[in-house]
Amino acid sequence: MATISEIESWADSHHPKWIDFIRVVLGLFIFYKGVMFIANTNALMEMMSNSDLRFFNLALAHYVAFAHLVGGGLIAFGLLTRFAIVFQIPILIGAVFFVNINQGFLSVSNNMEFEISLAVLILLIVFLIYGSGKFSLDYWMKNHPNW
């Protein structure tokens, strides 16, 4: 537990302010992907019809959509950022290594889902270490506990 506190205090003292803008954009992008995931249910149902574990895939789809919608909003506002990122990382690991790896890195196709998923995964790991920053609800609530 002391190591986590040391990492958090180091990240707070070395957190550039411009990186908060990237956190907000990342959160909004994850929220957008959650909306797009819900809006494109036909492709989801088609993908699930080819597998034997339909209930598991349906439950997984609901988890991904809910985690993207709620987690994206929390990351964008900087509220419980590390907690929200912990729920996003398994989804992005699955997207990078199991869903999009077949296309290849820097493929010639116009679909850049693999590269985008990899970039989002890297940014999530960065913000898991750095935290939410000074322009966040976490920071504001920490400095105004009685408001």
Which labels suit this protein?
single chain, 147 residues, mainly alpha, 7 helices, 0% strand, elongated
Please tell me about this protein's structure.
- The chain is mostly helical.
- Helix content is 75%, strand content 0%.
- The longest helix is centred in the middle third of the chain and has 24 residues.
- The protein is elongated and about 50 Å long.
Based on CA inertia axes, which overall geometry fits? elongated
Count of DSSP strands = 0
Relative helix content: over 70%
Mean pLDDT: 82
Distance between the termini: 29 Å
Number of helices: 7
Main sheet?
none
Category from helices, strands and their pairing = mainly alpha
* Unreliable stretches: none
Strand content: under 5%
Describe the structure in brief.
This protein is mostly helical. It has helices spanning 2-13, 19-39, 41-49, 54-77, 81-99, 113-130, 137-143. The longest helix has 24 residues, at 54-77.
